[in-house]
Design goal:
It is built from 22 helices and 15 strands. The protein is α+β, with helices and mostly antiparallel strands and 593 residues long. The strands form two sheets. Strands 5, 6, 7, 8, 9, 10, 11, 12, 13, 14 and 15 form an eleven-stranded antiparallel beta sheet that branches. The protein has a four-stranded parallel beta sheet with strand order 2-1-3-4, with helices on both faces.
Length: 593
Amino acid sequence: MTTQNDRVARPYRLVWLLPVQTVSMVLLGLWVTHVAVGLWPLTEEDRLSEAFATHRTPVGNSVTAGLSLLASTEGIVAVTLVCLAVLLAAPPAPRWSAALFLGASVAVQSAVFLVVTYFVERPRPEVPQLDGAPPTSSFPSGHVGASVALYGGLATLVLSRTRGPWRYVTAGALLLAPPAVAFSRVYRGMHHMSDVMGGLLNGTVTLLILGSVFLSTRRGTSGRTRRGASKSGAVPALPGPADGTRPGRRVVVVRHPHGCPDGLAAEVRALLDAHGYTAQRWTSTAADRPAGDLAEECAAGRVDLVVACGGDGTVRACADVLAGTGVPLALVPCGTGNLLARNLDLPADPATALDEALGGADFGIDVGRIEGDGLPSARFTVMAGAGFDAAMVRDASPVLKAHLGWAAYALSAVRHLGDPRMRLTLRLDGGRRIRRRARMVVVGNVGALQAGLELLPLARPDSGRLEVVLFDPKGAAGWLATMAHLATRVVRRPAAGAVAPAAPTASAPSGTDTPRAVAGGSLEYFSATRIEIRFARPQVREVDGEALGEGTRLTVDTEAGALRLRLPRAPGAAAGPADVAEATTRTAPSAQR
C-alpha cells in the first residue's frame, strides 16, 4: 500500500542536480562562445548554415516549417496540456507521477534555457532566416530542448508504463521528433549546429534527473510495503507450516498468455521469489481451459497461494476453482477491464499490485454463482447480466481490445444504442415476481465500471448480498439523464465493517423488492442474495466480461465470503489491526464445515 511515507522516500534529493545542470550549461555556452570559437568543428558551422540556405527548396521549407511549429512555444504548451489532461483524467486512475514527470521536464528545461541565454550571448547564423528570431541567445536551441523534454518524456512513459511490441514503434516515432526539429532549426538558419546539440543535451539531462525523481519508485515501494505490513501486524492468513519466514512456499501462477507477456511474467516470478514463494508452478490459460491446470495442481497437493495473471476472465476462472477451498488468490491485473482490481483499489501497475498484495493479508469476498438454460453452473466476482452490456461485450473487436483496451467496449456500445428493450420478470429471494422492460439488467458484486462510473453504488464485495440494476433510458432525454447521473455522482464507500446507509443489513429479511429509482426512472436498483430473471425472448448474457450464449433464464446466487483474496488492505478500507484480526480468523464457509 502506498503511503505518505512512500512519497516522501522517493529520491527527491536528486533535485540538487538541477542547479548543477544549469551551471554546467552556462559554462558550456561560455566555452562555445569564447574558447572554442576558432576550433574545429565549430569553424565549419558557418559553412554548414550557408550550404543549407543555398540549397533550400519549397518542399523543404514547408516540412521544416511544420517541424518548427511542432516545437514552438505554442505547440509545446498545447501538446503538454493535452497530455497532462489525458494522464490525469483518463482511466483507470490519475497518473500523478507520470504527469509530474512530463510537466516538470518541460518546465525545468525551459527554465534552464532562460537562465543560460541570460548569461550566454550568441548571435544567430548570418544567413537568411525563415522564422522570426526571438530576443534570446542562439545557444542553446529552445525548440530542440523543449522537443526533447516533451516527446522524449512521452517516449519514456510509453516504454516504462505500457506493454506490448507496439510501444517500441510508438517510442521510436516520438524519439525521431527532437533530431527532426534540430535539423529544421539549422536548415531554416535559426541556429548553429552546436546550438541544437546544446538543446539536445539540456533536454536529455532534464529527463534523466526528473525521471529518477518521479519514475524510479518500484524498488523502494516494495520494501516499504513489506516493512509497513509487518509493523501493523498484518500476516498472511493460513499461518502454520508455511509461515512468513520460511522459504519454499508453494504457489500456482495461472497466466493468460496474451495479457501477461514475458517481461511481466519475469517480474511476477522475481516478486514471488522475493516473498518466499520459491516453489512455483506455472500454467497457461486456453479457450477450453480458462484456469489452465489449476484444478489439477490444487488436487495434487498443498497450495499456499494462487496468482491470477490476466484480466477479469482469468480471475473468474480461478475463483470458480478456489471458492470454498480457503486457498488465497492474488491478482496481477493485466487484462482489458480489470474491474475487480479497480474496485479493490489495487494499483494499476500489475507488478506493483502483486507486490503490495504479497505484503498484505487474506480477506474473504463474496462470489456469485450463475445458472441458466444452456449454461453450465459458474461463478463470477464482478458482474453478470444480459441485454445491452452483453451485446457490447460480445461484439467488441478483439483487435481493438488489444490496442485500445476498455475503449473498444465503448465503440461496440455505440452500435447497440438502438437495440430494442427487453421484457423480463425479476424475482428476488423467492419473493413476488416483478415485471419490467429494460435495455439491460446487471447483477453486481462490485459497483464501478471503467472510467470510474459507479453503476452499482451500494455494491460491496464483502456484503453478503448482490446488487441489481435495471437500465432503461427512454429517448434522448433519458440517455442524457442517465449519463449525467453516472458521471456526476460521487459515492463514498463505507468503511470496512460498516453498512451502507441504504443497503439492507445482514440481519434484515432476505429480499428487497422495493425499487430505488434514480435518473428519472432510467436506473432502478434492487438488492438480494438470490436473483431469478426470465426473459420473454432469448437474450445474450455475459459474466465478468465474457459473452455467453443466448437464453431466457438467468439465476444468480450469492456465496458469501467464499473466495479468499490476498490484498494489501480490507476491501474498501485501509488495513488496520481490526482488519488483520478478522483476516487471520475468518475462513470460507466450506472450510468451517
